[in-house]
Amino acid sequence: MKTRHHYPILLIALLLGLMGFAEHAQADYTLGHYTRVEADNNTIKLAWTKTTGSQGTMSLQFRYRVRWRESGYSTWKEKTTTDLNFTINGSYNTMYEVEVISEAIYGTGGGSYGVRKVNTIADPELPGELTITPKELTMEAKANGKIVIIRCNKPFKFKGLDAPRWLTYSGGVTGYKDRLRLLVLALANTGPERSATITFKTTAGNVTLKVTQKGETPAADTETPKPGHFVLGYPKAISPTAIEVKWTPAKDNVTAQEKLRYRVKCIRHSDGKEVKTSPELTNQTEYTITGIEPETEYRIQITVWDEANNSDGYGDPIVKTPPAADTEKPKPGGYVDGYPKAISPTEIVVKWNKATDNVTKQEKLRYQVRCGLFKKLVKSSPILTDETEYTITDLPYSDMTYDISVKVWDEADNVTFYSVKEVKPLEKEPKPTVQVSSVMLDQPKVTIDGDRESFRLEATVLPANATNPALQWSSSNESVATVEAVSLSSMLKSGTVEGSAVTVRIHKKGKAEITAQAMDGSGKTASCQVEVISTVGNETIDGLRVYAVDGALHLTLLAPQIVHLYDVSGALVRTMDAPAGDHVLPLAPGVYLVRIGEQIAKVLIK
């Protein structure tokens, strides 16, 4: 019968179960299941399938704890086995609860197969058969008592006890019953450990019980420590020459956990040779093995000792170290004779012999052909694997000498280069000179009436295949309109603008003629007549040039002047004492008033 004294025990069991579940969650495992749970007279036959699983790269092995108890009792009996079947010897006509629990031998994992209830069979034809639970008692050295239960397959009556004087009993013994609960009592033992076999006499026969009582003088410690397990993911290689080992502490029946001693061994798997051994480690659960060989398999063993020198091992998982880092550059194979060489004004063929490497195979080496000019890379091939030829095309200059080289990588990205070779493309065949026959402008006349501050002017040169179609642009009155290059490449060193298109910038009222002249000596020209009736945003002060270009105010002064600059609200922005000459003042976008002496001009900065 359960009492209130059982609830703390049940609570502890529940907490231990939850802790076990958290530990099992660290491993990947699959529980088996029962295949047999049945009674055979007074025995219970159990069978089950195995639990499988792994932890990291380690395959887990499992053992099984079989537990049973009579229904209504809190105390379990249990046995551990590695088999997949077990027979429980019990009493006739009794309800039992049975459970199988799998546990990982090394690592974590496993769990309960579930509790099953089974009733043994009553056989009235059998003679009285007595059983006692437990079959052995171990008692403390001080005076104490422990419960035993005698059962029979038919009612019986207790008749007495044969026992030494230091043992007696207590409990209700009157009347016939099929189960008897007795308290076995031991007197205090001040000497060494002692034991005796006592006999309980009943009307159904006799049953014996072995009782051992500890003495005040402790017995020698002969029990080995119980190893923990390797921490998940360990041991593991942390470099080509080092393995890190971590484990959970072992436990012992006598020696305190912090006084247990450990030794880590590293054994080469191929020949079984012990290559590294740690010093003796106390209260330590990690160690790094160093100085071992790269790309080699090792078995890692941990041995644990207690203070009585009893020892046990954690097992020997296998760990393989990675290959050593490749830091050596490939060795170039040189160019094929006669290469690299030019095959046209725009093409150079490069052929080379394969490089070699201490680790990477030849067919996995990578190449890139590089073409440089004035120490600057102008052409390069894509990355080539297992190839030894490439043609560089579309070279921009046929009259220049190019630097040709081949870059080679191994799989560790170590890089080296074949030697640099200078190669000049083949010369182009000269073409007959074709002079310009005519020049035409897209706008022969432009009138500006406050509608814009600049416009684009484009020229067409005929014939289209003229040898030198370049044009030179000019303005007959730069105070009214100037010519600006569309790009910096269109501006000559002298400041003259060339190109097939220009921007004409308007400065003030007046007239100007914009002329485009062929530069091949043909003398062909074309002109655009520009008349400025009024300007946009920018105004011109007589004798001065005041205009905005590219986000800046431009001033051309004939003599030193005091220049005042205001925004549209009339606030003074800046005052400058400007000498004669050209001045450029960068400004934020907006409309500004420029005052020079008594004269005022308005400009628009974009």
Automatic annotation (TrEMBL):
Which key words are in the record?
Answer: Signal
Q: Does the keyword Signal apply?
A: yes
Q: Kindly give the Gene3D superfamilies that the UniProt entry links to this protein.
A: 2.60.40.1080, Immunoglobulins (2.60.40.10)
Q: Where is the Fibronectin type-III domain?
A: 226-324
Keyword field contains Signal: yes
Look up the signal peptide feature and give its range.
1-27
InterPro entries recorded: BACON (IPR024361), Big_2 (IPR003343), FN3_dom (IPR003961), FN3_sf (IPR036116), Ig-like_fold (IPR013783), Invasin/intimin_cell_adhesion (IPR008964)
PROSITE patterns recorded for this chain? FN3
Q: Which residues form a coiled coil?
A: none
Q: Name one Pfam family in it.
A: fn3
Q: What is this protein called?
A: Bacterial group 2 Ig-like protein
Species this protein is from? Tannerella forsythia (strain ATCC 43037 / JCM 10827 / CCUG 21028 A / KCTC 5666 / FDC 338) (Bacteroides forsythus)
